[in-house]
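[job 4471] stage=fold_predict status=RUNNING
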Amino acid sequence: MTISDLADATGVSKHTLRYYERMGLVPLVERDPSSGHRRYAAGHAQWITFLRSLRACGMPIREIRVYARLVAKGDSTWPARQAMLATHRERVVASIITLQKHRAVLNKKLRAGCAPSGLTP
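[job 4471] inference complete, writing structure tokens
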């Protein structure tokens, strides 16, 4: 698959895909021997979707880079990758709990209505 095909399949621009590759976030990208153009496998579309999910839930690029290097090393790295994902899931759960607390404060304020002027929110 070409970079244009991958961009179409994922909804990610070619520029962004090149950036991901430069940052070491996309493992196992081959080049066409005659033209030097990137050649992506079908699994790269799933990888890009997963990568974007990791970013959306707050995984730092440096951790995704480590994860991508482990993926490139093969199945034997699954325990390390599993540990990374479990650790990040714990951070996501903590973040969700914090956001739920903030939502509760907003809901309370919306139910209470307008407060008198001054420092009362």
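[job 4471] summary: The beta strands are 30-31, 38-39.
[job 4471] exit 0
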